[in-house]
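Running this now, will post back.
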Amino acid sequence: MRLLVRLRARANAVYDETYHHKLRGRMWRALADTPYDDRHSSEPPTGLAFSNPFPPYDMSAGDSRTLLVASPDRDLLGEIAADFDATPELNVGEMPFEITDQSVLAPDVGEPGTKGVIETGTGVLVRIPPWRFDDYDIDVDSDQSEFWKPKHTLDPFQTQIENNLDWKHGHFAPEDLPGPSDVDGDLFESYELIKTFPLPVTVTEGERETWILSKWKFGYRVRDDTHRRHLNLALDTGIGERNAMGFGFLNIKESELEAVTR
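Update: finished.
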């Protein structure tokens, strides 16, 4: 499930590609003094993902932008929506916005037999832990995780995002239902890499790092209801790491229903 939030720029502003830390801060201010107040500092996944304010261009006062906020937890989205209604000012660093409207969306990849494309709305963060270097023939003498890059091949990228979605599934899905790694077949049918790029990221106030991110188009064909549930979970939570900082947000680009041959 997700909130579609309509924004209006309150002043001329240059678009800030490093908006993540500031926008995350606004989300957590919305969740202050709610049952979700401590989610950002706890070990389980937060169950929060969000897009960039789009389209990502410099703006003039009065220009319209859109923000999407997703979660598998309807109540968490309800708390954010209530705060946005009560306090419609949304400032993302030097980009000042006013919230003008909100609505609820429930994107769905479709019934079994549906084919489509899911696109990453924001960069995906995938890091390969050092204890997996030998598995992927990564020759790096380091005890630090390695950012995924095309030279590492697709295998570690697929494995890491599946393992990450398994972790989220363990927290947000009924425990008697199988997770992504419990079933045959890949999460996505095809992987089209659009680009990889470095981005300076403020991890916490005063701590800035450069991360390597990637953008993708993922082709899918819904095999059955279990696969549909896994894909929809990815839409709700994002893929890869640090979704609550705005990374790995997904959108359905296109889909079409095909007859299933049995």
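The helical segments are 20-30, 74-86, 154-172, 225-237. More later if anyone needs it.
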